[in-house]
Design goal:
By secondary structure, the chain is α+β, with helices and mostly antiparallel strands. It has a single domain (11-138), classed as Hotdog Thioesterase (Thiol Ester Dehydrase, Chain A). It is 20% helix and 35% strand. The protein has 3 helices and 5 strands. It has helices at residues 32-47, 52-59, 133-138; strands at residues 11-16, 61-72, 81-91, 95-104, 110-122. The longest helix is centred in the first third of the chain and has 16 residues, at 32-47. The radius of gyration is 16 Å and the shape is elongated.
């Protein structure tokens, strides 16, 4: 799916902040944003038709975070409904780059933003591996580079 400007629309996942996600003050603990973003990337891949356990079993590959840069902008709190947006910005032979954003659903207040580099790895050797062709074909053409 693409926007009017021709850019792919971000994948969106809605998550609720539970008590377990917060610190003693009822504010989302900083590491929980990583959990929310991981879930969103997993659901993005699932929406493309790929399950990570099957990729490991059938293709012999897995995905791992290689690099991440985060900015914490505004505190989310207990019981907030959040929207986690994931936009693929680049797909190389063995890695994917994402821009991710977590914002409150009620007022679109941005809570956290990140750039994330995901490496495709050989599941046994844990060394870089080519992203399977079926995944590359499912990605928006404007994000595919280096094939």
């Amino acid at each position: 799916m693409a926007s009017d400007a021709g850019q792919p629309l971000p994948f969106r996942l809605t998550v609720r902040v539970y008590y377990e996600d917060t610190d003693a003050g009822g504010v989302v603990y900083h590491a929980r944003y990583l959990h929310f973003m991981e879930r969103a990337r997993t659901e993005w891949l699932r929406a493309l038709g790929f399950e990570q356990d099957r990729l490991r079993a059938e293709q012999g590959v897995l995905f791992a975070v290689r690099r991440m840069e985060l900015a914490f902008l505004f505190p989310a709190r207990f019981n907030d409904l959040l929207v986690v947006e994931s936009s693929l910005t680049h797909a190389g032979r063995a890695s994917l780059d994402f821009a991710q954003r977590v914002q409150r659903a009620a007022d679109a207040k941005r809570c956290c933003e990140a750039t994330v580099n995901i490496a495709c790895l050989d599941a046994l050797a844990l060394r870089p591996a080519r992203i399977p062709e079926a995944i590359m074909t499912a990605l928006p053409p404007e994000t595919r580079h280096g094939r």
